[in-house]
Design goal:
With 372 residues, this protein is an alpha/beta fold. It is 40% helix and 15% strand. The protein is built from twelve helices and eleven strands. The protein is globular.
């Protein structure tokens, strides 16, 4: 029994009660899909998207040098590191900062209502630059004002914030349109064009919301497909381990024609999939997500519900954030980092127990050469 299977077995006991819950907080389905699906010829374009999306990633980052200044104190204000994505992004940023000899101080904020105070605290404590990991800029008006008053660069990481004079100085994110397109194409190919999708947005994080919107646009644009949607399940990170699993189980039971579940980021995978297995629903629908964390990839490896995950290297994202901080501290223009994405299926998974990183592209050496 491998690590993922052991973790699944342990999780099953914890979610059995959830899977048996009533449907008082469930989202109802929209009815069964009809039609016989599309032909292989009709779906050839989507198969090509999948094929190209699973190819190894390559460096397409900046080419203009940016010498790293010495003696920089970098503050990293992060969403709760109980979520693997927040943890990996923070660690990637720390690794890059240490590679250039910077001091990196991490502030782990478990409640989004604390983001603004955390940012104001690091500003007043003398940070030279700040990387915000998964922080919605609408929640930090006081911190943004304090940073702008002192001329301290604000780099947003994997949140899809819009940079501007009243917000962060630069955003580093993968392309949500590309991520959504890859996930939708995978759903279309896996189901022969006949998709009844359950979408699960979390409005706290704008990048996952944008991914889901792009996926829906791609599904809607498939003229040869028969696409239907169950009622969406809106949730928050705080409910991932409480009510969300039972809501998904209730929705699947109410609408047995649901055959695809799409969520914008990986953390719900760790609770929802065990709940589906406990309820005997593991064969009804395939799961699709975005982030490329170890738990999600483990379910793919074990053929347990999870079909595909779009990964954008969190480690790479952290190095890209430090690159932008260097440029802002130097007074240089910011650049397109082009953090790549890859569609991860059973055919191209990283080693067991490891997230997608993209080491084959040599991005660390590329950045270090730019920072000399």
């Amino acid at each position: 029994m491998n690590k993922t299977t052991s973790a699944l077995a342990a999780a099953l006991g914890a979610v059995l009660a959830l899977s048996a819950c009533g449907s008082s907080d469930s989202s109802s389905g929209s009815g069964g899909a009809s039609g016989s699906g599309a032909s292989d010829a009709d779906l050839a374009a989507y198969q090509q998207i999948v094929d190209e999306g699973t190819a190894p990633v390559a460096w397409a980052g900046p080419t203009d040098a940016a010498k790293a200044p010495a003696g920089v104190s970098l503050a990293i204000v992060t969403c709760t590191m109980a979520l693997e994505g927040c943890k990996l992004l923070t660690e990637g940023t720390e690794n890059a900062a240490k590679a250039v000899g910077w001091e990196a101080d991490v502030v782990n904020v478990t409640d989004p209502t604390g983001y603004d105070q955390a940012l104001q605290t690091v500003i007043s404590s003398g940070a030279d630059a700040v990387v915000l990991v998964g922080v919605d800029q609408h929640l930090i008006p006081g911190g943004i004002a304090a940073a702008h008053d002192k001329g301290i660069p604000l780099v947003s990481l994997f949140q899809n914030n819009e940079a501007g004079p009243d917000g962060v100085d630069v955003e580093v994110s993968p392309d949500p349109e590309q991520e959504g397109k890859l996930l939708a194409a995978s759903m279309i190919v896996d189901h022969g064009g006949k998709v009844n999708a359950l979408l699960m947005p979390d409005e706290e994080f704008s990048l996952p919301v944008a991914v889901l919107a792009a996926a829906k646009d791609t599904l809607d644009g498939c003229d040869a497909c028969d696409v239907k949607y169950a009622d969406e399940i809106n949730f928050t990170a705080a409910t991932v381990g409480t009510t969300l699993p039972s809501r998904v189980v209730a929705a699947l039971r109410q609408d047995p024609s649901i055959n695809a579940i799409l969520v914008g980021f990986d953390p719900p995978v760790t609770t929802v999939i065990p709940a589906m297995v406990a309820a005997g629903l593991q064969d009804q629908a395939k799961f699709y997500s975005q982030l490329g964390t170890t738990a999600a990839l483990g379910f793919i490896a074990d053929d347990t519900v999870m079909a595909a995950d779009v990964g954008a290297s969190n480690e790479w994202g952290g190095w890209a954030a430090v690159d932008q901080a260097i440029r802002l501290l130097n007074g240089q223009p910011t650049v397109e980092e082009n953090v790549p994405v890859v569609l991860l299926t059973k055919s191209n998974l990283p080693p067991e127990g490891e997230p997608f990183v993209g080491e084959e592209a040599g991005f660390k050496d590329k950045y270090l050469a730019l920072w000399k």
